[in-house]
Specification:
- The chain is mainly alpha-helical.
- The protein has a domain of 86 residues: GIY-YIG endonuclease (3-Layer(aba) Sandwich).
- Helices cover 48% and strands 0% of the residues.
- The mean pLDDT is 85.
Length: 141
């Protein structure tokens, strides 16, 4: 199975993936956590201009079918190149602050009590889910 990503700094991105592997956020990070960082091989498929990164990521994900049969969570090309390294101006931050004034958070004042039985059921469901994921990853190895 494969995972396709894009970056302008390969070593930095690799370190980010390996660090995130300790706190799984998706199938790729879960695989790193389960099988270890030694089980992952890294390679650069193509080098291109920064403006082409999204298009090339979409191409390679489709080529290797890593959305349906791999670790990609989407079909790629969703990185906004215009946002790289940008910090919102003070004016923008003020506008964002004002736009959120008076809006009550969806969970304000809500306290959910979960019974011991409910917790046990959720734990079992979670364990079964990850056991299936692990079995699928091992069978695809």
């Amino acid at each position: 199975m494969s995972y396709i990503g894009q970056t302008v700094d390969f070593q930095k991105r690799k370190k980010e993936h390996l660090y995130t592997g300790n706190k799984p956020q998706g199938a790729f990070h879960l695989a790193i956590k389960i099988f270890g960082k030694e089980s992952v091989s890294w390679e650069i498929l193509e080098e291109c201009e920064e403006e082409l990164l999204n298009d090339r990521e979409i191409y390679w994900i489709a080529y290797y079918d890593s959305f349906e049969n791999g670790f990609n969570n989407d079909r790629g090309g969703r990185y906004d190149l215009n946002q790289r390294g940008r910090v919102a101006s003070e004016e923008t931050r003020q506008k964002q602050s004002i736009s959120h004034k008076g809006i009550e958070p969806w969970n304000k004042g809500k306290h959910y009590k979960i019974s011991d039985e409910g917790r046990a059921n959720m734990r079992i469901a979670r364990l079964e889910y990850w056991a299936k994921k692990k079995a699928k990853m091992q069978s695809d190895k």
